[in-house]
Amino acid sequence: MASLKDIQLKIVGVKKTEQITKAMNMVAAAKLRGAQSRMEEFRPYAEKFGSVMGELAGGTNPASFPLMEIRENIKKVALVIVTSDRGLCGAFNANIINASEKFFASQSEKGRQTAAICIGRKGSSYFEKSPVEVIYKMTDCMADIQMFNAKQVGQKLIQLFLDGVIDEAHVIYGRFINVAVQKPAIRRLLPISQEGLEEGAEAEKEGPTAAYIYEPEPEAILNQLMPMFINVQIMHAMLETGASEQAARMTAMDNATRACKDMIENLTLAYNKARQGAITTELMDIVGGAEALKG
Amino acid sequence: MANKLILEVVTPSRQVVSDEVDLATAPGTDGVFGVMANHAPLLATLQIGEMHYEKDGEVVRLAVSGGFCEVSNNRMTILAEAAERSEEIDIDRALRAKERAERRLQEAEARKAEIDLARAKAAMTRALVRLKIAQQKQS
After folding, report:
1. How far is Cα B11 from Cα A71, in angstroms, rounded to an integer?
2. Partner-chain contact A232 B42, CB within 8 Å
3. Co-location of B34 and B102 in the same domain
4. Model pLDDT, residue A199
5. Which of left, alpha, beta for B46 (phi over 0: left; psi -120 to 50: alpha)?
6. Which of A37, A173, A275, B106 is close enough to A237 for a disulfide, judged by CB 3.0 to 4.6 Å?
7. Class of the A26-251 domain?
8. What pTM, to 2 d.p., does this model score?
9. Are residues B120 and B95 in the same domain?
10. Would the pLDDT of B110 be above 90?
11. Tens-place pLDDT, residues A53-87
12. How far is CA B126 from the centre of its chain?
């Protein structure tokens, strides 16, 4: 059995850990509020963008847009993996990484090459050590998510697609369902699908829409908006991951705090038992000594 | 009530304007256009430039960059990558941006890098528009 002193030291140590996890939980809760509101502020922009794109794409021929070109022979698929920069958020990043690996495996089965584009340090450091090719990485951008970060990735992606280096692009991110649940989700970015666009338009139909005056022509507008649409989707994925990360950390730290409490309770019990044991032996010694003297 | 137009200016990070206005102009790719109440449905892309709106005789100017504008059902929505009211513009920052753009412009010209040149030019225009609007307010 561990000595009294050992148990006492352990209790002190666990208590300190508990303090840290409790503080991290509170910090994550505060950051979550910020991340969530940013996500909500971005929503009207993204929704409007989607609905206008759908409106435009409805009447046009997808074949005339290079970014909508569905290639028959898909040789290489890129996956944009959005993870957090920091750890200590439970299985959050591991879930995204596992889902990415699964995606890569299913693509390899079809005889396609795969490549990763990593946003966030956790994903980059994992995939740099794995056999998967990392075309592009961006780290230390998740603390303050900005449009130009998304734009950089979007431009890179579009360039790769137009150069024929990749034939398809998807994005995987931690979808924020609610504070307790975050799930990895995959979405296709390139080629832009007409169905996806029209879905967006359906969502915001309010009465009959009159014929628009287009300035310039719808095709020209679409050509200008499509790259931006990619950026908007990447931005959306980043914001969702950002909020999910904080929510996941909050839950993880809450669990850790609770585990600490359990441990302290058990250790205290062990400590009291050991102390009681020591007192009993001491008493036995005294009684034994007194008996011996009497004799 | 006189006919008013609902104007909304939205950027990825916030809603800049949400107001009922009498008139709004925007820098379209094909030229500046104005919109008043009961305008026909319109969809236009925007370039970096200056927009303004009038409400009860008061004029508010904004710097906008990139995006597009939709008008339907008496509602004008501008989705821009960035938009600032004149009083929100940080003049020092715009001046620094202008200097930086000037330097980049020279570098890009020397190297004949077309993409860099286009980017530097866009940065330059953004900085100039911001400065112009900010200074109009002061004078």
Report:
1. 33
2. no
3. no
4. 58
5. beta
6. A173
7. alpha beta
8. 0.83
9. yes
10. no
11. 877 776 667 677 888 888 888 899 999 999 999 98
12. 9
